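Researcher: Last one for today. Full complex below.
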Amino acid sequence: MSTISSGPRPADYPNRRPEEAVAEPTVMTTADGTPLKVSLSRKLRRSKIKAMLLVAPLFVFLVVSFVMPIFDMLSRSVDNPEVPTELSRTVAAIEGWDGEGLPPETVFAAAFQDIKEGAQNRSIGRVATRLNYEESGARSLIMKTARNVRNAEMPANAKAFLIDIDEDWGDPAIWHVIQRESDPYTLSYYLAALDMEYNAQGEIVEKPEYMQLYVDLFIRTLWMSLLITFLTLLLGYPVAYLLANLPMRISNLLMIMVLLPFWTSLLVRTTTWIAILQSQGVLNDMMVAVGLISDDGRLQMIHNQTGTIIAMTHILLPFMILPLYSVMKTIPPSYLRAARSMGASQLYAFRRVYFPQTLAGIGAGGILVFILSIGYYITPALVGGQSGRFITNFIAYHMQSSLNWGLAAAIASILLAAVVILYLLYNRLVGVDNMKLG
Amino acid sequence: MAAPENATAPEKAWYYIFRVLCALIFLFLIGPILVIIPLSFNAEPYFTFTEAMLSFDPAGYSFRWYEDFFTSDEWLRSIRNSFIVAIFSTILATVLGTIAALGLSSRFMPYRSLVMAILISPMIVPLIISAAAMFFFYSKIELAQTFVGVILAHTALGIPFVVITVTATLTGFDHTLTRASASLGADPTRTFFRVILPLVTPGVISGALFAFITSFDEVVVVLFLAGPEQRTIPIQMWSGIREQISPTILAVATLLVLLSITLLTLVELLRRRSERLRGMTPG
Amino acid sequence: MKKSTLLKTVAAGAVTAVAFGATTAANAETLNIVSWGGAYTMSQQKAYHEPWMEKTGDEIINIDKSGNALAGLRAQTMAGNVTWDLVDMLPADALVACSEGLIEPINHDEMLADAPDGTPPSEDFIEGSLTECFVPQIVYSNIVAFNTEMFPEDKQPDSIDDVFNLEDYPGKRTLMKKPINNMEWALMADGVPADEVYDMLETEEGVARAFAKLDTIKDEVIWWEEGAQPPQLLADKEVAFGSAYNGRIFNAAVNEGQPFEIIWDGQVFELDGWVVPAGKLDKVKDYLHFATDTQRLADQAKYISYGPARNSSAKLVSTHAETGIEMKPHMPTYGPNFENALPKNDAFWADNIDELTERFNAWLAQ
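Model: Here's the assembly. Have a good evening.
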């Protein structure tokens, strides 16, 4: 590395550049005669490279195992391969169609060939499924046609032939959808994730009210997460205060009570809330036993919003207490004493002196809890019932049940965007390198 | 934080109310976790305290749900799988994470905060998104439904914990020590094993324990990525809870609580040791 | 020294553990069979799997994933690593999977056993039940059941209308969290004859009418997602009515003595059967031949109240294996049960499932 350019050179070195000649006489050198500046910057570069080499294996690993999958998934939210690949002839033929009336015979003939080929390869189902997202009924239209054309010869009049198989081919609607979805990329999944759709004229409009779902769910997720964040703050603040101001030995002991839930399996904690809150559960039994409620008047505390909020507040509480605690720990108790000695009431001293100094901790804990909360899946899925579901439950639903993976990816991207914005905010406010774990 | 002697009466009252409030919050934190322990010894298949249990009648208690657990092939297989996945992903995450933390704690690391933000991101990105993304990607490269796939996924999830704990240990690290070691004639390898490693070991171990418990508890990614051969304890619990929670689940939960108590104790001991070593105040 | 030996032990243990997992698959033939779990898988275990394992020494692993079978097949095919060998599936899913090339086409007469009297499978299975990639096993039914203890003896519900009648039959209901069956029942309870239900659902008015009817009980409904939930909820008396598969209710009533009664009025019946994932035909064809013969299908009816899909098996249906009760009256196809029965329209649902499910989810969230 050192052989390239640095090192002392004889004064009469022929290729020496003029500026070096001017600079050299005043340069400070190290023991071996290297100019100090060069030596330092070389050392700096070496340290930089050393640090980067140490980080590189992990960085590469994480990019391959985690970051690339995320980007791959994001691309799925706009990917639209089905129509362009399965109906490639039709796509080419329909490009010039002006959208008036029915497309020309060439398009019908191309569709005939595409569907015939798809039926023989048994790959036509993909495009049938894809088109059915846009137009209910498209699936059986395609599948019925596939059954009929599989062994058929190209007819003289493909238009008449297809319309004879199913009169829906005579409706411009299906052709508009095919034309619209003939690009390899689509916005349809994002529109669906925002409760919007294309109308017959190809304009973007809101879905009818009885079909709207996701926007409300996003709002509900945000709203419930805010509430949960607020509750964790309400419960976490006094505890953190107590822990920060007790003698070390006692506070260490009490800290265990905060850390144990933190270390306990999420499923275990969710299970315990089911055992406690369900209508034949511990809490209802206790209330019946002491006569607070009657046996038929058992409270419904689970499989609804109440269940989700209680369980998630419990689960996320340590994430609020720990950052609060670490901030409060740095506030010298003498500040409060000083304020008190100057005549401030306890409340006043707390409000004007102590509380403002904890704002950083509130911000750190608050954003952390909020980020974790909007992305939670397990707990809302198990105790949320109908009203306590989060948007994440619909990502899972479209991944596993409806199999509309494009829509799942679109919803996930929107949620991810929200998380990333919050994460950047957190990073600015706290700095991820200051994150602590217990 | 004792009640000051010169406090007014309402302030004194507040002092006690505050303590009671805190006690209640602690109860909220820890109570639910402790409640399931006695419930898991219930002789009846209920999730509540029977009369026999409340009157401490031995007949009200039994080990039957533990027996169920330890005699079920499915549960035993899931324990084995959980350990395989957790051990391998912990080793990977710890090795990669520790080396990287050494680089990250260097003053010369360029774009430190950006790199750190990326390394921590698996902890921040909602699990359902990570799971969906890994499902697609790992399926493409034929790693879905394999142990390797699940292990790699869990390694990614465990890395932030290792990075955070080890860099935290290294922040207090006195870099003159390595220079001292070098000036006394030790080569870098020797310096690493004799000087750096003993000092960061507590941080590395607690990072490893975090990574272990992360993998051991993880359900969402396994739900998407694992095949029938890779069923882990959390998956088994998840399907159990979704259908009907049998008291066997409570027995498993109790065992998991014991596991977390053990790990937590270990981490606490290590943390104190590390702070003593680095000359900080104990605690 | 000590540390390194410890590490070695751990590593060796882990490696053996992995190796152990691999060898079980390599030695004996192991079939991964996907089904619905619970009482249904148990009936297959007794009627098909156990005799097969005894005969051949193969090992059969039951995987309870039929609820998400189509998703699983797509994922495994995409992953290029199909671990399932045989899948129990509904015919509507089978149509989709078949059209996407995920499962093998079946030549029924060539691959399946003839009836004992020599009737070929294409004539022995229920008419119209054999589709390109699908081998039917049973006819089952979606019904609503109730807990008899929740109603006075002189006022037990007996029709689908009663499920929607909160005034005379109060209490919570549990229904499947899908539009399927619920839409049909809502219209039937609203006075639409069974044979007009699907025509009606093709129209916007029909759909609106069904949702309006469901609205009347919405507040009293707990929605279930796993087949095991409704019997559990009924047994715990968390609900008075529950929609369920008739076999699960039969199982709870007969084997566990639960006071459950089925409302056969308005039952929505359909088939259920096997499909073979692409590339697995050679591995499972012998099993498939065995498990779908006349005797095996008849045997299954000893354990669960689902009607065999072969006419030759239906004649052999006798008594319940454990309690000895006559099985015929518990079958969906039994005359009195069948009076107001609706065949599930797969074509309708294939087309409308996306849109109606979305609308159903939006309706739930309102």
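The first helix of chain C runs from residue 2 to 26. Chain C has a mean pLDDT of 87.
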